[in-house]
Amino acid sequence: MPLQKSNSLWLLYALSMLACCLHLDAHNEPLKVTNAPPEKLLGYNPNTDHIVPAPNERAIALICAHGFGDRKHRFGFENTQNTTIVAFHFRDSRDRQHSWGDINLGQEADARVVLYHIILCYEAGYKTIALFGHSRGAAACITALDMVERPDAYRATWEAFGFVAHTVTTTQKSTRHLINRPAIKEIREALQRGTIFLARPLMSVDAAIGCSVANTLPCALSFLYPPAHWAATKAFACCTSYNAARAEPIDLLESLIGGNTHYKFTIYLATDDGEVSNKCDARLFDLAIQFPENLILHQIATATLVNAYQQSPGPKPARLEALFIKNPAKAAHIFIPDAISAAQEYLAGIH
After folding, report:
1. Which residues, at least 6 apart from 131, have a Cβ–Cβ distance to it below 8 Å?
2. Helical residues (DSSP H) of the chain, grouped into ranges
């Protein structure tokens, strides 16, 4: 008996020591991003459109991500009874004072802004969330989806947004956060119910820089393209927050579609695209052939885009009009009515 009593005391002592060393602080709900100032979470105010609470289970939120050198853009979409359009400024929007260091071209810093707006829509009760991204905005949308699929790879972002299920303290000075996976799963399902529209997506920053170099070099100096491309990529990475070591959007997209993630993409490309390049088009066509239920791909001739631009009703933005006079093909690439029409038909048909 004394031996049994002694063993019991040792067991109680061991359990009490374990309780002191291992403390679980449970959070049933993530921190409401809606209640936190964006300056705290993003470092700036993106001037987000007002997001009304979802009126019903079938309501849809469409998040619009603008391209590089552009500003907050709704692309002609309007709110309806069951549709909420959410537009915002990226940090390097031309309507904001910004530095070269704010330029990220769709990598994690830009994607964090898209994810922030996805979470806002989720917290507003939307069970279906669609995305419309143009150029750099499209790249940011792809990276944001990668954040949702692989939260452990972006743990700091999810923790900053308050998606912590438990805080585990192993000692008084050592803590470890456990990500709130059930909440992230609900966000993933909301995005899978929607459609991701990408207009002239920036699939490779390296290829886009190569396009810019090729367009700048005179034909007589074309032999300088390889070293000029290398130097331009290095200089761009040094001056901006772009990281050349990160995976390109095309690589992330292949992982998303090939990984049986159930996202639905509709992508519009332009032929002879002198801005984002056509280097990744073949890989996109291969994806569309292998996974037709996940990717619908359209390629539009430049001449068709120019004609659509010329015949479009209403005034054009002054910057676009000036660019059209200088370079019609380049301006037409920016103006992609087919992608906008497809998204409008999607929104109209979902109810």
Report:
1. 62, 63, 65, 114, 141, 144, 191, 194, 196, 197
2. 2-21, 38-42, 108-123, 136-149, 155-160, 181-193, 205-216, 225-239, 249-258, 281-290, 302-311, 318-326, 328-334, 337-349
pLDDT digits (tens, 9 = 90+) for 127-149: 999 999 999 999 999 999 999 99
64 CB-contact burial (10 Å; exposed 0-12 / middle 13-18 / buried 19+): buried
Torsion of CA 313, 316, 322, 323, to 10 degrees: -80
Structure-block tokens of residue 77: 């979409």
Q: Are strands 265-270 and 196-199 parallel, antiparallel or unpaired?
A: parallel
Q: How far is CA 224 from CA 204, 212, 221, 276, in A?
A: 21, 14, 6, 21
Amino acid in position 2: P
- Residue 327 has a CB neighbour count (10 Å cut-off) of 13
Q: In what order do the strands lie in the sheet with 295-300?
A: 83-87, 60-65, 128-134, 196-199, 265-270, 295-300
> Exposed/middle/buried for 222, CB within 10 Å: 0-12, 13-18, 19+?
exposed
Separation of alpha carbons 105 and 171, rounded Å: 41
Confidence of residue 320 (pLDDT cuts 50, 70, 90): very low
Residue ranges of the domains in the chain?
38-163+181-349
Better-scored residue on pLDDT, 4 or 273: 273
Half-sphere exposure in the Cβ direction for 40 (13 Å, CA):
9
Which DSSP state fits 67? -
pLDDT per position as a tens digit, 240-293: 989 989 999 999 999 999 887 899 999 988 887 878 888 999 999 999 999 999
Short-list 175, 173, 176, 168, CA closest to 23: 168
In eight-state DSSP terms, residue 221 is G
Q: At what angle do helices 249-258 and 281-290 cross, to 10 degrees?
A: 10
Given CATH 3.30.420, say whether it is the number of domain 38-163+181-349: no
Query: Encoding tokens for residue 64?
Result: 């619009």
* 29, two tokens: 């709900």
Which pTM was predicted? 0.81
Spatial separation of the C-alpha atoms in residues 284 and 306, rounded to whole Å: 24
